[in-house]
Amino acid sequence: MTARKKRFWKGAGIVTAEMLGAMAVFTFTLAGIVFWIRPYMRRHKNLDLKIFDLVRIHTNERNTRIMSILTVLAKHQFLIPANLSLIYYFLFVRKRTWFSIRVAAIALSSLGLMFLFKYLFKRKRPQPPLLRPAKGLSFPSGHAIMSVTFYGLLIYIIGQTQKNKPVKWPLIISLLVLIQLIGFSRVYLRVHYASDVAAGYIIGLLWLLISLDLLKRIEDYNKQHSMLPVRPALTT
């Protein structure tokens, strides 16, 4: 094995170990908090039901069609090719290794966190759904977690790379609105309680911020020890 490959695998090992360690601490801490407030959540389930009643007023064929389209934008059928496309773009087109690492690490770790929290809490989905039953468990909303981490990462990348403010801020605002609409679509379609979506947003945002900070620290460490290829900051 060449010295370059050894440095690469050493860097990849550090990234993996740090992400897994952060996931363990994050999950243990947040799960403890949620278990602590779980009795309070059960007593206030009526709030989730009242929100369903408010949303039902606006239920019609046109809105249902729009919500059905929006919800697809955080499904794995869309996010898997979207993440792979970003990884390919930054790795082979722009040749910015650390942007591709951020995309892969955050996508995989967010997916793991989603399944872990669902397994821990085992909350059943609301019944009946508006259109068709959704697979899996309800708490937290995977769509909310994945939309925050994926589109939030896009916001971070745009903020880091786009210097043209008339382009940058409309893109950022549009992505923020999209995140909110995806979460709302899950409540509208009655496949998640509003509290599922709120918890998904909180978990997704906290993990995104932790991941970005951790990966930035690893990148800085890499620059000092030259484990992975380093290139100038991406600009447009």
Task: State the gist of this model.
This protein is mostly helical and 236 residues long. The chain has helices spanning 3-43, 45-56, 61-72, 76-93, 97-121, 142-161, 165-188, 194-225.
Describe it.
Residues 232-236 have low confidence and may be disordered. The chain has helices spanning 3-43, 45-56, 61-72, 76-93, 97-121, 142-161, 165-188, 194-225. 78% of the residues lie in helices and 0% in strands. It is globular. By secondary structure, it is an all-alpha fold. The chain contains eight helices and no strands.
List the helices and strands and how they pair.
Blueprint: H1 3-43, H2 45-56, H3 61-72, H4 76-93, H5 97-121, H6 142-161, H7 165-188, H8 194-225
Helix pairs in contact: 1-5, 1-8, 3-7, 4-5, 5-6, 5-8, 6-7, 6-8, 7-8
